[in-house]
Known about the structure:
The chain is α+β, with helices and mostly antiparallel strands. The chain has one domain: 4-Layer Sandwich (Double-stranded beta-helix), CATH 3.60.160.10. It is 15% helix and 45% strand. The strands form three sheets. Strands 3, 5, 6, 8, 9, 10, 11, 12, 14 and 17 form a ten-stranded antiparallel β-sheet that branches. A hairpin with a 6-residue loop joins strand 1 and strand 2 (13-18). The longest helix is centred in the middle third of the chain and has 11 residues, at 116-126. It starts with a strand and ends in a 14-residue tail after the last helix.
Amino acid sequence: MDVELTHRPSYTHLVVELAAGETVMAEPGAMVTHSPSVSIETESSRDGLVSSAKSMLGGESAFANRFTAESEPGTVTLSPPTPGDVHHHELDGETLYAVDGAYLASDPDIDIDSEFGGLESMLSGAGLTPLALKGTGDVFIEAFGGLETIALDHGESHVVDNDHVVAWEGSVEFDARRVGGLKSTLLSGEGIVMDFTGPGTVWYQTRGLDTFTEEIMEAMPGTGDDGGFEVEF
């Protein structure tokens, strides 16, 4: 499998060149184009790509598409649903954690699961269910906006707003918490943050989708407090 990331960083496009017999998995709706020699098969969580825990708790779909170059090589182009960048990560037996909705595509040998640590975060009010991507092969993680990297030494810590977290290596310890009490949460504009402690790398996106969506809603007529109007039909 040969890959190329084009139109970076704002509208990244993933081009996957498949040899005959090779396969790439991708989230539903990610496909932009593919060669006639490439077949598509939709798989559910029962097929082993995604566990039932991910289907119930994670932000990803319970389904994924399998693109396979049949008798001859072929090309598949993929893109995230929002403007932003894509991180190409090569796993070699280790684990990469990704937040809900960050998974774009992967080698079919990569196992994707949610873990109890993510369940604890969700139940504590963080609304986070990290996905654990394990195995050997290529993984592609999508971001809203640009991608930044935080390299943490052993014992070094950093705090990232949960709306900006994208992924982190399995060697990094993590936890989710609220910022202060209810008053500070409401007035600060923040809510949930994640604490990361090295060693390892953390990736975050330069824009938060939830915050961006709220800004769009405020700008729509009739939704803000600036004397907007409602349209009736």
